[in-house]
Specification:
The protein is α/β, with parallel strands linked by helices. The protein has six helices and 13 strands. Strands 1, 4, 5, 6, 7, 8, 9, 10 and 11 form a nine-stranded mixed beta sheet that branches. A two-stranded antiparallel sheet has the order 2-3. The chain has a two-stranded antiparallel ribbon with strand order 12-13. Strand 6 and strand 7 form a beta hairpin. The N and C termini lie far apart (about 35 Å). Bound molecules: 1-O-pyrophosphono-5-O-phosphono-alpha-D-ribofuranose and uracil. It catalyses: UMP + diphosphate = 5-phospho-alpha-D-ribose 1-diphosphate + uracil. Catalyzes the conversion of uracil and 5-phospho-alpha-D-ribose 1-diphosphate (PRPP) to UMP and diphosphate.
Length: about 210
Amino acid sequence: MPLQVLDHPLASHLLASLRDERTPPQEFRQLARRLTTLLVLQATYGIRTRIDRVTTPLCETEARVLDQGLAVVPVLRAGLGMLEPIVDLFPDVAVGYIGLERHEETAVARSYYSKVPQSVEGRFTLCVDPMLATGGSAAQAISLIKAHGASQITMVSIVSAPEGVEKLQQAHPDVAIVTAALDEKLNDRHYIVPGLGDFGDRLYGTP
Ligand code: PRP
Ligand code: URA
């Protein structure tokens, strides 16, 4: 499935402030929510719709309405920073949670929590995690989501590394990826360069 890199002046502007090391957590959280709104509009372009009829004060007319439910699975903890705007846009979204934490040295993700509703089956499903670095966390999360019956899955990230995109495309070729930036590389500590640092720490102000 194709990789889509969001190409919008506002997205670039928001991302520049997210990257800025001086941005404090309260502003970082707000920027992440705003940028996620743009990403989600792009990521849900393919959700199923149908033609309905509505009556305006003037006449009856055709109107396109949503015909498919949405599910979202944020990867804890950083993915939580992307949840709120999705719930605002799609109030009847089904929400699952997957907790994964990378080992500081090996970058291998350890699973510590998972609650994914069976109702993901048949829904247009977004897995949200702001950083797609080695791709290990995203590949694990998507395997878990698929095990609950989801078959139409899009990975939504804010910053991606080429290594992570390649790993995810190899592990799950049927999963679309929507991101706000495709960065240059990973460094020797498996951090995205130029990136924005540790998203979870910047979101929650942890050292
Ligand atoms: C970060 C990020 C992803 C993962 C990406 O989480 O939010 O989940 O790293 O790296 P990968 O592509 O190499 O797997 P982290 O493990 O730091 O946990 P946190 O969200 O709790 O801070
Ligand atoms: N996780 C982050 O938060 N940042 C990175 O650059 C890589 C993984």
